[in-house]
Specification:
Layout: E1 3-8, E2 14-18, E3 36-39, H1 54-57, H2 91-94
Antiparallel strand pairs: 1-2, 1-3
C-alpha cells in the first residue's frame, strides 16, 4: 500500500499515512482540525541497464563514422603522390565486367 504525505494548511503539521488506493484522502488535521493537503514530491527511480543515460545513445564526436558495407578502408587505398602523374586506366579496367545474365553461353 502506498504512503501519502499530508500537510495542514493551518498549522503546517506534516504527517504520513499508509492508505489503499481506494481509500478517500484525509481532509482534516488530527492536531488542529484544519484543512489538509496532499504533498507531492519526486519519486526516486533507479534505471538499471544500458540505454538510460544520455551517453548511451549519442555518437561521440571523436568516433569515426561507420563505413558502408563493401567499402575499402582508407588505409588499404594507396595515396597518390602529388609530384607523380596519375597512371591512365587501361581500357580493360574501364570496361564493365559482363554479368551472368548477359554473358555468352
Amino acid at each position: 500500500m502506498p504512503t501519502y504525505q499530508y500537510r495542514c494548511q493551518t498549522c503546517d503539521h506534516d504527517l504520513e499515512v499508509v492508505q489503499k488506493f481506494t481509500d478517500a484522502p484525509l481532509t482534516r488535521c488530527p492536531r488542529c482540525h484544519g484543512a489538509l493537503r496532499k504533498v507531492f514530491s519526486p519519486v526516486g527511480i533507479v534505471f538499471k541497464g544500458s540505454g538510460f543515460y544520455s551517453t548511451d545513445s549519442h555518437r561521440h564526436p571523436t568516433a569515426s563514422p561507420k563505413e558502408a558495407p563493401g567499402a575499402v578502408p582508407q588505409a588499404a587505398v594507396p595515396a597518390a603522390s602529388p609530384s607523380a602523374p596519375a597512371e591512365p586506366a587501361s581500357a580493360a579496367a574501364a570496361a564493365p565486367a559482363p554479368t551472368p545474365a548477359t554473358a555468352p553461353a
